[in-house]
Amino acid sequence: MAVFTPLGDAQVATFLESFDVGRFVSLQGVASGTENSTFFVTTDRCELVLTLFEQGEQEELPFFVDLLDYLDDHRLPVPGPVHDRNGVALQRLADKPALLFPRLPGRHPESPSLEQCRVLGDALGRMHTVSRRFSGSRPNPRDLSWLQALHHKVLGFLSNADQTLMKNAVDDFEGEFATYGELPQGALHGDLFRDNTLFEGDRLGGIIDFYNGCTGDLLFDVAIVINDWATNADGSIDPARHDALLEAYQARRPLTSGERALWPTMLSMTALRYWLSRLLVVYVHPPAHDLTPHDPTRFRTIFMARQLHGALPLPEVSVAN
């Protein structure tokens, strides 16, 4: 159970009085998540999600509120934070920062269909198109500079071959990114795995958990999606899901020539990003709570596949009217 700060019914009922969301009915802890306490809250008018922020860079929470407000205002399928009667979204409860969200419909897709891939690609393309005008700023905390700074911390836990592989890849990435210069920038989700989406059949109910949100290379988000949504167990890319996602995405925001040139590198770099972050949790920075960390092996497999086989050809661009 990923509830690190328990709450009582009376405590939440009092908290809700500041909002125009109806009368408290019930409270249920959510058995998922690795950093924050999450609850489903039912009132006589609606279903809500209440999140208490347990750790991390809490001074950056206003950025996430502003980003979600912005995307919600542009009719993206995200949970816009609920503001109280004074227009304030970020609150405190049980001496922790707290946010209240509408509960969006659907479930996480385990094996996404081609239509779900198309729908997600379209939504991400729409999001990136409007996010380029978002005025907030939070540098990407997991970009190439992070890889350069932190990969040495795990080298002692790797085989000699993996040490060489990781060090050489980081050096290669540095040269590739320097060659192509700045890519199109905007606000990113930063962690758009299948379990951060909700679907009802082939209908997208919402994109959730923006706590890795930042501003940076839009291509970074696209590569994360392909490495999760369109990747087989052996690390290879599924051509049908790959094309469904990227055709729908590019109908909204065609990739530039620089992005196309750097695409294989970005796929490989984001795979290494998750291999490294999971190695750090296992060996260097164990979770603050009694939770089982993600297995790094999955993203080592994906990274190796990207290094050995590169990327599939990008589909042709078809721009929507």
Automatic annotation (TrEMBL):
Keywords: Amino-acid biosynthesis, ATP-binding, Kinase, Nucleotide-binding, Threonine biosynthesis, Transferase. InterPro entries: Aminoglycoside_PTrfase, Homoserine_kinase_II, Kinase-like_dom_sf, Pseudomonas-type_ThrB. GO terms for molecular function: ATP binding; homoserine kinase activity. GO terms for biological process: threonine biosynthetic process. It catalyses: L-homoserine + ATP = O-phospho-L-homoserine + ADP + H(+). Residues 27-255 form the Aminoglycoside phosphotransferase domain. Gene3D superfamilies: 3.90.1200.10, Phosphorylase Kinase, domain 1 (3.30.200.20). Its EC number is 2.7.1.39. Pathway: Amino-acid biosynthesis; L-threonine biosynthesis; L-threonine from L-aspartate: step 4/5. The keyword Nucleotide-binding applies. It holds the Pfam family APH. Belongs to the pseudomonas-type ThrB family. PANTHER family: AMINOGLYCOSIDE PHOSPHOTRANSFERASE DOMAIN-CONTAINING PROTEIN (PTHR21064:SF6), AMINOGLYCOSIDE PHOSPHOTRANSFERASE DOMAIN-CONTAINING PROTEIN-RELATED (PTHR21064). HAMAP family: Homoser_kinase_2. This is Homoserine kinase.
